[in-house]
Each structure stands twice: as C-alpha cells, then as structure tokens.
C-alpha cells in the first residue's frame, strides 16, 4: 500500500511543556488509523500540527510524498488533507448547505458545481432535510455530521476526524460509525481521534496510542488492548484508587478492559 | 413577486421623481444615496468579511485628494482622477490590510489600527503645504463642464450618486453570490474553520479590502466635486468613517440592500433632528445618537435582519 501520510520525529513544545515528542506515524492509502490516549496525551495537538494550525518544533510531515511543514491550513486542505474540529466550529449564521459549499468550492469549477456537490454530500451525511436551516440551529449530533460533511466536501484523500462521537448517545454513535464506514467506502483514508473505545476498536485497521505526547504502543486493536503499558496509561499505576465499577481515574480504561475480556 | 415589483416601483420613483422635488429634498436625497454608497462600499469588508474598519476615511480622503490634486495641478478630469484615487486607495488598503491581517489583528484591534491609519493620513495632510495643509483645497466651480465633473445644478449630481449607489449595490450582489462571497462569509463566521475548509483567509480578506477601499475612494471624489471643498478634517476625519459604516450596520451588515435601507432611515433622521433642534448646539447629535442606540439595541441584525425574521414567520434570521 502506498503511504499517504508520513510523520517522522514530530515534536511540539509550548514553552517548557512538551505536548508531542518524537512521534512517528504513518497512514497508508485506504487505511483507517485510530489515534487514542488519555486526555491531555497530545492527540489534538498532533492534528493541529498535521493540518498546519501549529508549526512543529521539530520533525517532518509528508503528505503524498511532499513536505507540508510550513504550509497554511488552506494550502494543506487543497492538497487533499482535511480535518474536523473536536469542538464543532460551524459557520453559525450560514445554512447547512452553505457551510458545506464553502468546502466544496475547493474542488468545484464554479458556484453552481459547488452547490451540486454540496447537495450530494449533505444528503450523504443525512442532513438533507436540514440543508436550509442555519447551522446554529442544528443539534450537536447534526453539527458533528456537518463538520464531517464540510471536510468531505473539500475532496480529501485523507480526513482527520477529531472526536466526532463525543457527547453523543449510543444510537447517534452507531449512526456516526456507519457514516464513517461509508466515508471510507468513498475511498477516503481516515485518521481518527476517539475516546469511544468500542467504536475506535471496531473501525480501526491499526491503533496508535499516545501518552504524554509520545507513542506508547502501536498495532492491531486487539493487540493494543492487551498491552500492559496501555492499560496502565489509562487506568493509572497499580494501586491507584478505583470505584466500584472498576473505573480508574480516567474513564475509558474500563472499555479497554472489557474489550480484552 | 411582490418584493420585485416593489423594487421596480422604488427604482422608478428614484429615477423619475427628483426633477419634480424642491431643492431641499433633492439635497437630502443626494445625502441619502451618498451615505448608502459609502455604506455599501464599507459593507464588502465590514459586513461580508466581518472586518470592522473604523478608518475608511483613509480611502475616502485618498480618493478626494487624489482626483482634486490631479485636477488642480495637471487639469486631469476628475472622471479619470477618481479612478487614479481608487487605485491608490486600493493600494493603500492592501498595504494596511496586509500589515494588519498578516500579524493576526482581529476584531477591535483591527478597528483601532484602521482608525490609526486614517488619523495618520489626516495629520500628514494637515502638515503638508503641497496639499493645502489644514486650509484644504477648493475645486473651482465658476465654469461648470460635464466632462470635468462640474455641473451647474444639483440634479446631475443626484443622478451620478444614484448610479454610483446602484453600482455599489450591484458589486455587492455579485460578490455575495460568488466564490469570494462564500469565502468571506466563512472567514467572518470562523476563520480557523474557514482555513480548514480550504479558504485562504488572508487572501480573501485582502481582496475584500481592495474592493471596499477602491469604491470608498470614488465616494471621496464625488464629495469633492459636489461640495467643491475638501480639508483634512472632513475627508480623513473619523466622522466620515462612522457615517459610512452606520447605514450598513443599521440596515443590516452583510446584506446587499442593508446600506441603502439604513441610509434611507438614518439620513432623514439626522436631517430632521438638525432641522428641529436648530440653534441648540449638540442637541441634534444627542437625539440622533439616541435613535441609533434604540435601533441597535432592538434590531441587532439591522433592518434587513428584522424584515427577514418577519418573513420567516418570526424565526430568528
């Protein structure tokens, strides 16, 4: 498989704080890679670095063989690497369709073509009935879909999804999992940050675990879930207090345990 | 459609009625269209791109001074001089915009910087003998000549500013529906998300700046020819910046018709307060200010927002 995204030795320091340290990461064309780790592990910072929102302190980021370090986010987007935001950022006053059109104008020759493309994508993500509503009136679940629609409309080869399931109920999560699979079926490779473990385990071909900004483990989901270091990172060191449900200081660890069982 | 029919009737009235109007009403109507024009020019940057300039006087003054100086010194007709002024204002706008946007100035910081640029030009004009310093420049009107943008009566000026205002609204209409319009709306709503969706935020803001400053400068030339006198305080002062942005804000920033509607409400109010409170210095401005406060408190989306809200069955726009 050809390599789409290749990150080597990626490091980001904010003052004295190292957010990401010497990270190596690779996404092949057609792959779904999950990026997991406890809160504060540096996952979103990695997305900011790859998408051009932060400049790395050190390291290389190559997309389709060419370095994207130093490019502005819009230039990276035009090369075919799009992202969503963990905290949804719709263009609040614009309609759902117009939100998606902004993305579609990247590839479309003119406004009419962008509208056709946006209409198709709005239907595709299941917002067809809400295409004329202003984005500010959408529910959280719909806003997450809108984030994905806008990213998808830019015509990416690689789409970075940042916690598109957080805050959603189980039914909504199932729908989003289905949507992610359909996006993948369109030929879009995916790098996904997610705290909903069942979902990320089910979706990913490969998992990369980040802890304190460094790569703790990497491999197939089942392998990673068995990794002692990963379990400790989520649940804390042996002897830390647990509640009755076996929940450690950081919630998602329980899910890993269940997955393992 | 009722709205289209109303627009045709309104346009017909604007074209046909003025020759029949008394001089005073014609002057008020010229003011209405003049501020509608400035509002529409400001709207491209302030309304659509959401970059709230407080210093459009800079472009207005550059336009007024460039065409007037070219006319006085070289005899170049202001019809061409206004294009030179527009070009120069756009160049200055691009420079000022690049310096501000490149270093990430947003919101009130951008407003303050634009205000500072305009004030800077005002101070330069006040202290430069070659441009008449604080005495200003007089446009000789003894020999009216249409090819020199000089007319004997008010009526020709009325039709010129009517054409300019309609032209500015047309430019806005085209921008709104274009690729640029979508990009500007995206930047206004959320610059990071716009970049993530492939919008070159700096590039589109600069394009809005160029269009907006070019148009505003043409307004400066119109002012110089109509009033036949300019000085640094009038053309580069903060008053003209504010008078230019108020119609857009009150009418509805980021809408095509907002500035026109806003000016049709604001300018007569300003004229009326001045006429009613003649002789009580400052009282008219206080009343005008009160009207403004009320309009902005009750109609934060402007008159267009109010109309759209009503049309959408009371839903928020």
Structure summary:
Chain A has about 260 residues and is of the alpha/beta class.
How would you describe this structure to a colleague?
- The complex is a heterodimer of chains A (261) and B (317).
- Chain A has 261 residues and is α/β, with parallel strands linked by helices.
- Chain A is built from ten helices and ten strands.
- In chain A, α3 crosses α4 and α4 packs across α5.
- The longest helix of chain A has 16 residues.
- The C terminus of chain A is likely disordered.
- With 317 residues, chain B is mostly helical.
- In chain B, 74% of the residues lie in helices and 1% in strands.
- At the A-B interface, α2, α3 and α5 of A face α7 and α8 of B.
Mean pLDDT across all amino acids of chain A: 89
Unreliable spans of chain A are 239-261
- How many beta strands in the DSSP annotation of chain B? 2
Main interface by residue count: A-B, 32 and 20 residues
Write the topology of this structure.
The complex is a heterodimer of chains A (261) and B (317).
Chain A: E1 3-14, E2 17-28, E3 32-36, H1 43-50, E4 58-63, E5 66-67, H2 73-78, E6 81-83, H3 96-104, H4 111-124, H5 140-153, E7 158-162, H6 170-185, E8 189-193, H7 197-203, E9 206-211, E10 214-219, H8 221-226, H9 228-235, H10 253-260
Parallel strand pairs in A: 3-8, 3-9, 6-7, 7-8
Antiparallel strand pairs in A: 1-2, 1-4, 4-5, 9-10
Helix pairs in contact in A: 3-4, 3-5, 4-5, 9-10
Chain B: H1 2-16, H2 23-48, H3 57-74, H4 78-102, H5 107-126, E1 137-138, H6 155-177, H7 179-189, H8 191-196, H9 201-227, E2 229-230, H10 232-236, H11 238-251, H12 258-276, H13 283-298, H14 302-311
Antiparallel strand pairs in B: 1-2
């Amino acid at each position: 498989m050809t390599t789409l995204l290749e990150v080597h030795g990626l490091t980001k320091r904010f003052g004295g704080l190292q957010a990401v340290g010497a990270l190596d990461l690779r996404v092949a064309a057609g792959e779904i890679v999950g990026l997991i780790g406890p809160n504060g592990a540096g996952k979103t910072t990695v997305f900011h670095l790859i998408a051009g929102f932060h400049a790395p302190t050190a390291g290389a980021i190559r997309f389709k063989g060419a370095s994207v370090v130093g490019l502005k986010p819009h230039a990276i987007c035009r090369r075919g690497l799009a992202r969503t935001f963990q905290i949804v950022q719709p263009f609040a006053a614009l309609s759902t369709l117009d939100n998606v059109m902004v993305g579609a104008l990247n590839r479309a020759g003119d406004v009419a073509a962008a509208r056709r493309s946006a209409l198709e994508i709005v239907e595709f993500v299941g917002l067809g009935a809400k295409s004329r509503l202003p984005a500010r009136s959408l529910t959280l679940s719909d806003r997450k879909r809108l984030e994905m629609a806008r990213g998808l409309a830019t015509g990416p080869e690689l789409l970075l999804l940042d916690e598109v399931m957080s805050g959603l109920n189980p039914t909504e999560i199932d729908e989003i999992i289905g949507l992610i699979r359909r996006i993948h079926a369109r030929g879009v490779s995916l790098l996904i940050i997610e705290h909903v473990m069942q979902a990320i385990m089910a979706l990913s071909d490969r998992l990369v675990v980040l802890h304190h900004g460094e790569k703790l483990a990497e491999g197939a989901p089942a392998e990673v879930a068995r990794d002692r270091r990963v379990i400790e990172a989520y649940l804390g060191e042996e002897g830390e207090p647990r509640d009755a449900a076996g929940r450690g200081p950081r919630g998602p660890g329980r899910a890993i345990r269940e997955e393992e069982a | 459609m009722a709205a289209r029919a109303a627009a045709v009737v309104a346009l017909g009235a604007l074209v046909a009625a003025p020759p029949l109007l008394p001089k005073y009403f014609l002057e008020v109507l010229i003011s209405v269209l003049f501020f509608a024009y400035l509002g529409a020019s400001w709207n491209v940057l302030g309304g659509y791109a959401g970059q709230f300039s407080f210093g459009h006087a800079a472009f207005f003054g550059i336009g007024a001074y460039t065409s007037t100086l070219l006319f006085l010194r070289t005899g170049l007709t202001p019809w061409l001089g206004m294009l030179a002024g527009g070009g120069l204002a756009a160049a200055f706008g691009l420079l000022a915009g690049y310096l501000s946007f490149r270093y990430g100035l947003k919101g009130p910081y951008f407003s303050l910087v634009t205000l500072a640029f305009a004030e800077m030009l005002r101070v330069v004009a006040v202290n430069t003998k070659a441009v008449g310093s604080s005495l200003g420049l007089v446009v000789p009107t003894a020999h009216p000549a249409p090819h020199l943008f000089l007319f004997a009566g008010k009526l020709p000026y009325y039709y010129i500013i009517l054409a300019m205002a309609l032209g500015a609204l047309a430019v806005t209409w085209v921008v709104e529906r274009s690729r640029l319009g979508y990009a500007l709306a995206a930047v206004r709503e959320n610059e990071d998300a716009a970049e993530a969706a492939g919008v070159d935020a700096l590039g589109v803001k600069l394009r809005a700046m160029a269009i907006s400053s070019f148009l505003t400068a043409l307004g400066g030339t119109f002012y110089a020819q109509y009033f036949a006198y300019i000085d640094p305080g009038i053309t580069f002062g903060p008053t003209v910046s504010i008078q230019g942005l108020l119609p857009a804000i009150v009418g509805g920033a980021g809408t095509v018709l907002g500035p026109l509607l806003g000016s049709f409400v604001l300018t007569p109010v300003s004229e009326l307060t001045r006429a009613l409170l003649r002789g009580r210095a400052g009282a008219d401005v206080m009343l005008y200010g009160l009207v403004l406060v009320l309009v902005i408190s009750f109609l934060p989306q402007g008159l267009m927002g109010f109309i759209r809200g009503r049309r959408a069955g009371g839903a928020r726009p």
